[in-house]
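Exercise 7b. Backbone tokens:
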């Protein structure tokens, strides 16, 4: 049965000489895999160039329950990604965030609020002229609201230690090793209100930005099942 849905490209891998498999987060079905014919013919119905990481597409798909890989029938881009395909900082962010989302989003996650958040984020990144180096920090913190792991900021001004496992500030050092010390926790407090409209106001060195990213990834890894290392992370470290 054919369905029309919106989708956000997360990544692709070579399947054979004729096909790739693309991972797409769809509004209707959550994360799903689709068979993409490989063709450089200008007359090809579905152009492989559409499937750049984080591209937002209108899709017509054949989707059958319990099938691991589904078929694409038609695809077109909702809006062009001129800057995200040419600005090397934005390119590195697109590859990192798409890989990050593959680890975070599960097949059962068909929450439309998550989809709208990511779609709005892509539009924001494409248009952004200031604060781009902080974009992924704002994105990752903002996403916690939609996947049920938003930190408890209630005691951030009174308690000096952030407990990564319980997602809250504490007055004493936790009995486990997964926590941020006073200095590290102060960075998290500083970033609590970061968003796309004010991200350009946060002055962070590359070293501090990478350190904060490590804290955030550890936080996700502790709260989500199976979160392997991200291959694109080292490239991102050199770009932002």
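Sequence design result:
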């Amino acid at each position: 049965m054919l369905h029309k849905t919106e989708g956000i490209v997360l990544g692709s891998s070579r399947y054979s000489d004729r096909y790739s498999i693309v991972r797409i987060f769809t509004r209707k079905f959550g994360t799903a895999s689709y068979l993409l014919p490989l063709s450089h013919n200008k007359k090809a119905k579905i152009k492989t160039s559409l499937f750049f990481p984080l591209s937002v597409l209108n899709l017509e798909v054949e989707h059958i329950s319990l099938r691991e890989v589904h078929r694409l029938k038609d695809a077109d881009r909702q809006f062009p990604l001129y800057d995200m395909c040419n600005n090397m900082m934005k390119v590195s962010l697109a590859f990192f965030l798409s890989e990050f989302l593959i680890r975070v989003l599960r097949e059962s996650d068909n929450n439309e609020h998550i989809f709208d958040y990511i779609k709005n984020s892509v539009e924001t990144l494409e248009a952004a002229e200031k604060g781009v180096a902080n974009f992924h920090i704002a994105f990752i913190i903002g996403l916690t609201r939609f996947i049920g792991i938003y930190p408890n900021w209630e005691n951030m001004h009174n308690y000096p230690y952030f407990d990564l496992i319980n997602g809250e500030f504490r007055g004493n050092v936790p009995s486990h090793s997964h926590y941020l010390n006073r200095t590290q926790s102060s960075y998290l407090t500083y970033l609590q209100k970061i968003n796309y409209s004010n991200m350009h106001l946060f002055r962070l060195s590359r070293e501090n930005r990478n350190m904060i990213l490590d804290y955030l990834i550890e936080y996700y890894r502790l709260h989500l099942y199976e979160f392997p290392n991200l291959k694109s992370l080292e490239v991102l470290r050199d770009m932002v």
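Instructor comment: The helical segments are 88-104, 112-127, 135-143, 182-190, 206-223, 233-239. The domain at 82-240 is CATH 1.20.1440 (de novo design (two linked rop proteins)).
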